[in-house]
Each structure stands twice: as structure tokens, then as C-alpha cells.
Amino acid sequence: MPAVLPNPWLIGKREDILYFFLPVFAALLVFFMAQHPAVSNSMFLSMIAAYGFGLGPLHQGPSWFTYFDKDNRTYYASNLTNRFRFFILPPILMITGILATLLCTQFLFAALTLCHIDHLLQQSVRLSRLYRKDDAYAAANPKMEGISQYSVAVAFSMVGFYRFNFLQFATVPGAYYWTVAACILAFVCVCVYLGGILKRRHEGLPIHYQSLLFWVISVLAWAPGAFVTNFYLAFLIPLTIHWFQFLGMNATLVERKAAAARKLHPEAVNKDAMLPPAVALFAVCFTYMSLFVFIDYLSQTTVSVIVKGLCVGVLSGLAMNHYMLDTFIWRWQDEYPKKCILPYITSQH
């Protein structure tokens, strides 16, 4: 065991509590609110609960705010692959979302649901891996961080798919046995993960309680798939937690990067910026949220079928872009995110 243990917090004590742990209570509040008759019988209140008081569409805003950063734009335009990812692919996905909504809605719905689950898992697994502190604490095999979380999420999702016959999953030959097998595999993966921690603990390393708690929250968030009475409620807890995490990380990134810029070039501060970076971030987020909610509201009013299809298609395209952009923006194995983003959202900064 090292003489001095590294900081056990990922971003910082205050930030980790606010963004990673306290949101569990907000998620439970939204979860139980959504099941109250007064909420479920009101379209307005249902939208508020489903969006987590607006956090749903609000959290997609930072994906587009990255384009306001000059360093990011330079990186996005640095080679053909990046130009395709960040400038060409977004409009293609938007058009795809609109066409798929009008022509093959069921396929789009299935694809978005699967991408949605993967999107939530990508973030929680990335954060779990970042919590690892160079083997200074008792930790499981790094690969088990992802395998354990994915296996549990897939198992609970399959239980939900089977219970609600989502996309006729229950009618697939052997669906019951596949679901049972997924649950058994998830149980084994959880045991292996916890066993790895206990093994390192017996070797004399201290338990990293913050990391373990984060993993427990990430795993148990998927449990409602086994008992909820509404299929969409199964995702509400992991969704709400995800929204807080994502907004917190982006707020931290913007604030710390701005502070570093002020320290490095104090003479250049506020020369070009109309708003402080954190204010600009949330201005973009609220503008995006307003547009998103308006389009969603329009899709549920008595407009023509074509207009409804276009509205739903635009929302689907925006969701696909959010999933795609975040996949590449937060890829720590790529040099730019690792050197120019990661240092600002870790406690070592």
C-alpha cells in the first residue's frame, strides 16, 4: 500500500456528492412522482416527470456547446475522420431520424431504445474506470467495471422486455430461457467483480468506498425493470442519474477550463466572451431545452400526421446526434480528449 493514498474523489468531494450521489434521491423522487395518479393523468405533469424537471432535454445541450469552444472546433476539423464525425454525420443522422420516423417507426424505436441503454452505460462505465486510482485501492479487474455493469443492465432490461413483451420479445422462441440465462450471467459477473475487490482487500489494500458506492448505484439503478408496471419507468432512475452526472461534468469542465485560461492569459480575459463560460453553457442548454420541449409538445397536439412525424423525427435525430457526439467527445483513448478534457474533470487538476 502506498504511503500516501491518492485523492479518493473523482472530480472533488463537493462535486462528487452533488453530481454522483445526491441525484439518487432526485431520481427516486421523479420515479415515484411519475407513478402518482395526479401526474400520470396530466400531460403537462407527465412531461415534467419524464424529463426530470427539464433535465432530460437540458442535458443534451452540452453536446452542442462543445462547438462553441475554439480548441474543440480546431480538433473537429483537424482530419477527415473528425470532420465526418462532427460536421457531416450530424445532419445525416437528423435526416435519418426524420425518414425512419415516417417510413419505419418500429425499427427506429427499437434502435433508439438499444442505443439509449448503451449510452447510459457508456457514461457510468467511463466514470467507474476513472475512479480507479492506479491500484492504490482494492479494485476488481478493470474489464469487470464494464462487464459487470453491462451484464446487470442487460439482464434487468431483458426482464422488462419480457414482462411487457417489448417489440414482441416475449414471443421470440426461447426468450424466457435467454432472460434467465442473462440474469444468471449478471449474478456471476457481480460476484466476480466483488470477489476481485475482496481479494485485493485481503492483500492489504484499502477499499475505495466512493468507487464502490458509485458502482452499486450504477448497478441498482436498473433494478426497476424487474417490477415496474410501466415499461418506460424502468429507465427513469438511470436516466435521471445520468442527466445530473452529465451536466455536472460539463459544468466542471467549462468552469475549470475558463479558470485555467484566466490564469494563463489574464490579459485576454473577457475580451471576446459576451457571457461567462458557465452562463453561456446553460444559456445554450436552456435554449436547446425550450426548442426540444416545444417540438415535443407540438408532436402531441392535434396537428397533421405528417407534422407529427416530422416533429418526432427531429427529436429522434437530436437524440441520435447526442448519443453519437458523446461517444467521441468523451473517448479517453483518443489523444485530444485525454489531454485537453480529462485533466479538467478529475481531482488531480
Written description of the protein model:
This protein is mainly alpha-helical. It has one domain. It is built from 16 helices and no strands. The relative contact order is 0.17.
Compact summary:
The protein is mainly α and 349 residues long. It has 16 helices and no strands.
Which overall shape is indicated by the principal axes computed on the Cα atoms? globular
Order of helices and strands: HHHHHHHHHHHHHHHH
Number of strands: 0
Return residue spans where pLDDT drops below 50 for at least 5 consecutive residues. Answer: none
Fraction of residues in β-strands:
under 5%
Helix-residue proportion: over 70%
Helical element count? 16
Describe the secondary structure blueprint for this structure:
Elements: H1 13-21, H2 23-34, H3 37-40, H4 43-50, H5 55-58, H6 61-65, H7 70-76, H8 80-103, H9 105-131, H10 142-164, H11 175-202, H12 209-220, H13 236-264, H14 277-299, H15 305-329, H16 335-340
Can you tag this structure with a few keywords?
349 residues; mainly alpha; 0% strand
